[in-house]
Design brief:
Length: about 300
């Protein structure tokens, strides 16, 4: 049976939803205007009237496009469907113009990880590189990790530092973040401004000194669909970064979540490749207590 590729339409959303992650399925029901604004491209592969593959991508940073998912129905794997979708996505973006690169970020625990990376290599993509580490586990296990939390918080307070929620810190904290970014002290990847729409103001922490100056932050968002709380970014200025203050901020966020939502609440802590010390802490202290741990890998192909 021949295969055909076509752009997914709203009336096909229900039939195609099972071929992408639950978080991305709503994109299939977007209006044409929403698709244009987000540069969303969803391509389906059909065998007759049966969908056998789906790729979903949206506008990324700069002129890039993020490939969110590329899924092939189990019965159709290893039959060239993935390659067909990847090429069709690439050709569609080149034809429409305005896109400089197509990028994919994916877990090294992804089913079919080896096959997917082999496909990317065959299609001229860059060798995948680790971009961050993630650890997932219940809040109650963080007390095994943060055995010295009380001591860290006590020392922090004794030296005039406080850990506030983002709700308590308010707009003054955002103004300081912008200043730290403008001077280059705060790296772009650490910016909490990328997360403002989904940042949880009571679970995200801000570290301030005796003068109220922002010394660091931890971002947290509630991923209700996955029944977990996600800490994607944490950063502290020197010299406090070398003194355990970042761990103190994570510990305080976890403590508050446990008090409010129960000790079985699931949390995911992520640390970027630009934080080797934090990665080592996660691997050494968090991983033995984790439900799972992985690395997020990134690969890309230039289009223009």
């Amino acid at each position: 049976m021949g295969l055909r590729v076509s752009e997914a339409t709203r009336d096909q959303a229900a039939a195609l939803a099972g071929l992408t992650w639950g978080a991305y399925a709503p994109l299939l029901s977007w209006s044409e205007d929403e698709k244009r604004r987000s540069r969303a491209v969803s391509l389906a592969v059909w065998a007759g009237t049966v969908p056998v593959g789906l790729s979903v991508s949206v506008k990324g940073a700069g002129g890039g496009q993020n490939l969110l998912s590329l899924t092939v129905a189990p019965a159709w794997r290893r039959r060239g469907v993935g390659r067909l979708m990847l090429r069709a996505t690439t050709e569609t973006l080149i034809r429409r113009g305005g896109v400089t690169a197509l990028e994919a970020c994916f877990s090294d625990r992804l089913p079919g990880f080896d096959g997917f990376t082999a496909l990317l290599a065959a299609e001229g993509w860059q060798t995948p590189e680790p971009t961050s580490h993630r650890i997932c586990g219940p809040v109650r296990e963080t007390f095994s990790v943060f055995r010295h939390r009380a001591g860290i918080i006590e020392r922090l307070n004794r030296e005039g530092f406080r850990i506030l929620t983002w709700a308590e810190a308010g707009m003054a904290a955002l103004a300081k973040v912008a200043e730290l970014e403008a001077t280059g002290e705060a790296p772009a990847w650490a910016s909490p401004r990328h997360w403002l729409e989904k940042l949880h103001p009571e679970a995200s922490m801000v570290l301030v000194d005796a003068d109220g100056d922002v010394r660091g932050w931890v971002v947290c968002q509630h991923q209700a669909a996955m029944n977990r709380w996600y800490f994607p970014v944490g950063w502290v200025r020197q010299p406090q970064a070398s003194r355990g203050w970042l761990l103190g901020a994570y510990a305080e966020g976890a403590r508050r979540l446990g008090e409010r939502h129960g000790q079985d609440t699931r949390v995911v802590v992520e640390s970027g490749a630009g934080q080797p010390d934090m990665v080592r802490v996660l691997e050494r202290h968090f991983r033995p207590h984790a439900d799972w741990a992985d690395r997020l890998m990134v690969s890309w192909r230039k289009l223009g």
